[in-house]
Write a structure and sequence with these properties.
five-stranded antiparallel sheet; 838 residues; seven-stranded antiparallel sheet
Length: 838
């Protein structure tokens, strides 16, 4: 077994987990060997939740997180002639190193140099005693050298444990970045499972019961702890490795983070805004926050770790990343709602089915996602023990010892604070957090509601019949689109229902011009989880979001919620005009044109994209916090940049520039008209959109009697409602509950786009099949434009019939066409197998 890199159909970005997790804690914080033994028993009893390959002794990974066993380490280092300071005065790092000697020595030198440069003291290294015979042959073949590093503080510059903990974080990030950039052939074998003054992690590519056999330390009777967190990994559709075993530095996770790509994008975008009095100049050393090589759980751990270093408690950080379903919760207190609403302005939820156990070495707890899609049960004993695990029965506890037991509820938190010596209830945690700051007052004073904006001073004039037809043709509308997709939405407020499957070629193989939307396919959740029903689970689903500039994630001020709240991303024409006229302190709109001259071909399109991105940067510099990307004005001399290309290009340009979180993006376009189009716009960065031509089209259909029983105004209203319901359906297939999480998540695969195009404008999008670039996109836009303004006026002046859903002569190719059916019938009647094969 060896670590694989992106090749063929494999991509390490798809690494996800589904596992068994548990913890045990003495509520009073009393350290004992018994806690460690009980944790190892829990881990062994979770074996069935893990996996192994064709080598039955190589598991997907297992591990245990403990408080630092000071007495044990003091004894071990004394034998090595090292004097260990008092507990809390030093940090311990568990380090995986390359096996090759020169590379291992270089990694050690990088580590030691970083320790000295950060003003800390290197106490020494320790070789961790392990038994390679206790792991499987495949795990043994890629097993790293495992060492521990002991680091002390300089009392003059690092005055307390909290400062030392923060400095160790900086050291680890510096070392990780330097090793990654070192060019060492085995640099990916280097990993720091933990580096802390409070906790240590023993883990590896092992099966649960192998952990204490492999690590001799865990069998030593002087290894004691008041809490322990364990995990057995099941690596779904992915390849296991030593570093991807859990627990991570703060958590162990069972489930899947389905919004991962967007969460990572947004965190990367926020990094340029980071400032911190605690870190000072060190703030530049800790980026990137998210390790791009990690699994979804590892990246979640990276973000959680950062939030704890902003001065927030670990329970506060978890509440930000996995908030309860608060938007539609009628019985939730107003103070708690205000807490969640305020923090939704700071960052998006990390959404997906999840049971997460977490610990900072003092507090230990667990939380479920808002849907409760992963099981977690707990037992509290009369002698002050709390046991939580993915299932009951992980420890034998006599019934007469049980004081309380239950299961975690969706969005609820179980927390044990050993410094307080008690269990802290979910209500106490959250009401306490909600009282930290005057969140409701801040929201009332700063969060602007779209419905509360002044009426627009003017509205765009409706298109006349001839102009409407030209616009529809320029954007590639067909009669089939109107009849089969848009009419049901306008009549019933529901997306049209169709059968599964298609017999037409992928867009890249089609002979007919295709919208850019057609080159993207929706991804589905990897880890098994029940599909969310967006109708029955309305309480936990939400398409409301906020648009505007974000502030420094390290702070909490009234200005952090100076944003615009919209209840649905599908903006009406008047709402968009209200928004365009917005010019308040901290909320200012700028409209950018996405038009170009079609006669200029590829060069004109590329130049228009460059200008659009530069204009976006200039608008932000000038103080704009909301950018409207508009293709209004299409005519004989102006063609539209495909709306998806425009928003994705600006989105990723601003991410690379470090200014993405300083503005919100809104798309005003005549191109999108079906649910897949709107999902793509949101997935690639649009906070809201105004499909003005779609609105004009359904209103015209109602006015002309093409759709009956609804007025033009009702048709538009139903169409907007159908968009919202359709987005909820798309999100639910990925196990995502909120539009805010789906925003920028890029949960799509590109089929038939060139790597150059993807890397520049759709960065980090999965793609296994390359194809067309900007030149072909420009050619397809030009073909539609010429049809509208050159060919059509001299023809019948009607929309193309369309042939995506039904066969048409000279239309899109269908596998099931009249010739196919005729040959099938003929062969069946004649018993002619040769004809049947044709």
């Amino acid at each position: 077994m060896s670590r694989l890199f992106a090749q063929g159909l494999y991509d390490p970005r798809f690494e996800h987990d589904a596992c068994g997790v548990g913890f045990v804690v003495n509520v009073r914080g009393e350290k004992s060997r018994d806690i460690v033994d009980k944790a190892l028993t829990i881990l062994a009893n979770l074996e069935h939740r893990g996996a192994c390959g064709c080598d039955p002794l190589t598991g997907d990974g297992a591990g245990i997180l403990l408080q630092i066993p000071h007495a044990f380490f003091k004894k071990e280092l004394a034998a090595m002639k090292h004097r260990l300071p008092e507990a809390g005065e030093y940090g311990v790092g568990m380090v995986f190193l390359p096996r090759e000697t020169s590379q291992r020595n270089e990694c050690r030198e990088i580590f030691e140099r970083a320790v000295r440069q950060e003003g800390l003291k290197l106490i020494g290294w320790r070789t961790v005693p392990v038994d390679p015979a206790e792991c499987g042959p495949q795990a043994r073949a890629i097993m790293p050298e495992i060492r521990q590093i002991f680091i002390g503080r300089d009392g003059r510059r690092v005055k307390d444990q909290a400062t030392l903990e923060r400095k160790l974080y900086v050291v680890r990030k510096v070392v990780e970045n330097r090793v990654a950039a070192s060019g060492l052939p085995d640099s990916e074998s280097f990993h720091i499972p933990s580096l802390s003054t409070r906790t240590i992690v023993y883990k590896g590519l092992l099966i649960s019961w192998q952990i204490p056999r492999f690590y001799a330390d865990l069998r030593d009777p002087t290894v004691e702890s008041a809490l322990a967190l364990v995990h057995q990994r099941f690596s779904t559709n992915t390849l296991p490795s030593w570093d991807r075993a859990h627990p991570y530095r703060f958590l162990a996770h069972n489930g899947e983070i389905n919004t991962l790509r967007g969460n990572e994008n947004w965190m990367h975008a926020r990094e340029k805004n980071f400032t911190s009095a605690l870190f000072g100049e060190d703030i530049e050393k800790i980026v990137p926050i998210i390790n791009p090589r990690g699994s979804d759980s590892a990246k979640f751990d990276n973000a959680l770790e950062l939030l704890t270093f902003t001065g927030r408690s670990i329970d506060h950080a978890v509440m930000m990343m996995i908030p309860e379903a608060w938007q539609n919760h009628e019985s939730m207190s107003e103070t708690k709602k205000a807490f969640y609403e305020y923090h939704s302005c700071l960052m998006e939820p990390w959404d997906g089915p999840a049971s997460i156990a977490f610990s900072d070495g003092v507090r230990i707890g667990a939380v479920l996602d808002r849907n409760g899609l992963r099981p977690s049960r707990y037992v509290v004993t009369k002698d002050g023990l709390v046991v939580m695990a993915s299932e009951v029965g992980v420890l034998d506890i006599a019934p007469d010892r049980v004081e309380a037991k239950g299961r975690l509820q969706p969005g609820r938190m179980l927390l044990v604070d050993t410094s307080l010596g008690r269990i802290v209830s979910d209500d106490e945690i959250k009401e306490g957090m909600a009282a930290r700051n005057p969140y409701r007052q801040w929201l009332d004073q700063n969060l602007v509601k779209l419905a509360g904006l002044p009426s627009a001073t003017s509205l765009p004039e409706p298109f006349d019949k001839a102009t409407l037809l030209e616009q529809q043709q320029a954007f590639g509308y067909t009669s089939e689109d109107l009849r089969m997709l848009m009419a049901p939405m306008a009549i019933n407020g529901q997306e049209a229902v169709g059968s599964m499957g298609t017999d037409t070629p992928p867009a890249v193989l089609s002979d007919r011009p295709q919208l850019l939307f057609a080159y993207f396919k929706q991804l589905f959740a990897q880890v098994t989880n029940p599909a969310i029903d967006p109708l029955r689970e309305e309480l936990v689903m939400s398409i409301s979001t906020t648009i505007g500039a974000e502030q420094n994630l390290f702070d909490e001020t009234a200005l952090h919620c100076r944003q615009l709240e919209v209840k649905t991303p599908a903006l009406g024409n008047e709402e968009l005009e209200q928004l365009k006229e917005l010019d308040q302190d901290g909320l200012r709109t700028s409209t950018l044109s996405t038009l170009f001259h079609p006669g200029g071909g590829t060069e004109a399109l590329e130049k228009a994209l460059e200008d659009l991105c530069q204009n976006a940067s200039d608008a932000i510099t000038a103080g704009a916090t909301i950018l409207v990307l508009s293709d209004r004005g299409v005519g004989p001399e102006h063609a539209p940049i495909p709306s998806l290309l425009a928003v994705a290009a600006v989105h990723h340009h601003l991410i690379r520039e470090g200014t993405r979180t300083r503005c919100g993006l809104i798309v005003e376009s005549g191109e999108p008209r079906e649910i897949h189009h709107f999902a793509l716009l949101v997935g690639y960065g649009a906070g809201a959109f105004n499909p003005y031509l779609a609105y004009e089209t359904v209103a015209d259909m109602a006015e002309e009697g093409v759709i009956k029983g609804v007025s033009p105004e009702e048709a538009v209203q139903h169409y907007r409602k159908a968009i919202g319901k359709g987005l909820l359906k798309v999100m639910s297939k990925m196990g995502i509950s909120t539009l805010q999480s789906y925003h920028g998540a890029q949960i799509f695969e590109a089929v038939g786009l060139s790597r150059e195009l993807i890397d520049k404008h759709f960065t980090w999008t999965a793609s296994q099949i390359e194809g067309l670039g900007v030149d072909a996109i420009a050619a397809e836009v030009k073909a539609r434009h010429e049809h509208a303004y050159v060919a059509s006026p001299s023809l019948d002046g009607e929309l193309d019939a369309g042939s995506q859903y039904q066969w048409r002569r000279r239309g899109e190719f269908h596998s099931y066409n009249p010739e196919t059916i005729a040959k099938l019938q003929h062969s069946a009647r004649a018993g002619n197998y040769k004809l049947f094969k044709q």
